[in-house]
Every structure is written in C-alpha cells, then in structure tokens.
Amino acid sequence: MNRGRTGPCSKPGTKACREKKRREMLNDKFMDLSSFLEPTRTPKTDKPAILDDAIRVVNQLRGEAHELKETNQKLLEEIKTLKAEKNELREEKLVLKADKEKMEQQLKSMAAVPSPGFMPSHPAAFHQNKMAVYASYGYYPNMPMMPYLLPPSQRDTSQDQQNCSFAA
C-alpha cells in the first residue's frame, strides 16, 4: 500500500511528516552522542549500544567527580591545618624575637657597666702590661689550675695519688 509519497513528506505539516522529522532528529542526536562518547571510533547506529555507552561514561564521570570532591575536601582540611600551624609559628617567632631583643638589651646593659664578678676590684691584681692576674682556683694544692694545657712531656703525674683522693 503506497500512499503516494514522492519526497520527504507528501504533505508537509501532517502528523506522519512531523513524526518522520522527529525520528530523523533523534537519529542525528544518537549519532552525535555516539561520536562524542568514542571520538576515535566510527559512530554506532545501534541505539541500545549508544545508550549503554552513555550510561557507562556518565557513571564513570560521577565516580571521578566523587573522588575529586573527596580529594578537594582533604586538601581543604590540610589547608586549614597548615594555616593554624603557620599562625602558631608566627606567634612563636614573635615570642622568640621579643626574647632575643630582651637578651640583647641585657647584654648591652651588662657590657656598659662592668660588674665585680668579671673584673678584679683591686688594681694590684693587674700586671704592668694591664692583664689581670688570678690566683689558682684549683682544688688540689701544688697543682696548676689547668694541667691538661701543659704538653704531656711536662706533666708531673707522680704525685697524683697523694694529691687526689678519688672516690671509687
């Protein structure tokens, strides 16, 4: 039964003609979708296969989007932690800087006023060449203050047992 169709539609505007245009438009959209899903392959014409590919790609993209959201959340938390640590370090730096300045001021004040603990108070404690002379502060009589400064050949260790009583 031929209804006398000679062209795309025998009577434009009829329901059959509109339906044919709709099907052609859907087929074109399926071809576009197929070429978009797998651009390196020739487009598929099987509509269920095209829909399966589309579902697979959409699910894959959803998974990737979920992973990226999780990664983004972790990075935001890490940024928060690093900012808190940075602020703590800034505060510590300010405290250390204040301590340093305080110590420098103390050092300047100690250098400006000689204290009796650093210099002998009696002028007779100086030699003619203006160097201070200190008495031996050793714990053992007849021993120089720092015998380890003498070369080994000049050290006398014969009296050590008598001069030093070691507790064992």
Automatic annotation (TrEMBL):
CDD domains: bHLH_AtILR3_like (cd11446)
Keywords of the record: Coiled coil, Nucleus, Transcription, Transcription regulation
Pfam families: HLH
Domain BHLH positions: 10-61
Coiled coil: 51-106
Spans annotated as Disordered: 1-20
Superkingdom of this protein's organism: Eukaryota
Record's keyword annotation contains Transcription regulation: yes
InterPro entries per record: bHLH_dom, HLH_DNA-bd_sf, ILR3-like
Protein's cellular compartments: Nucleus
Predominant cellular place of this UniProt entry's protein: nucleus
Name of this protein: BHLH domain-containing protein
